[in-house]
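Board notes (copied after class):
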Amino acid sequence: MGYSSGEISKCYATGSAIGTQRYKTYVGGLLGHCDTGIISNSYATGSVTGNQNVGGLVGHGDDAKAANSYATGFLTGIGDSYVDGIWGRITGCYTIDCYYDSETTGRPYELVAIGKKTKEMMMESTYKGWDFKETWEINEGLSYPNLR
């Protein structure tokens, strides 16, 4: 997906996202740009490549929110030009209970999301506030969470 200002819920992407020659900014594993939107109960697992504003879930966000979501794909950008586990670059955005794999993304630290090691990402107890009865399922110790 490229751009959204609405609600994205219970979505996922597993393929790689690569910014083309003309569009090498605002590259995300699930969404390139989110403007005042809400992303919830979603995830992205593919690698993400661009010049700047590269995020495991969203490349760039303006006054947007992400909740109960995660990302695991390796992130590549030029230097550290807004390249992070969940949001590449944010303006007035926030996250609630969002996680990224600090080992597989290559990003040990992010300001607005929680980085966890791969082993922790495969444990239900990591995901505080997530609904594992209706929305998510996990094969403990063997896989990341999946939507039911």
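Comment from the instructor: The first strand starts at residue 3 and ends at 4. The chain has one domain: 3-119.
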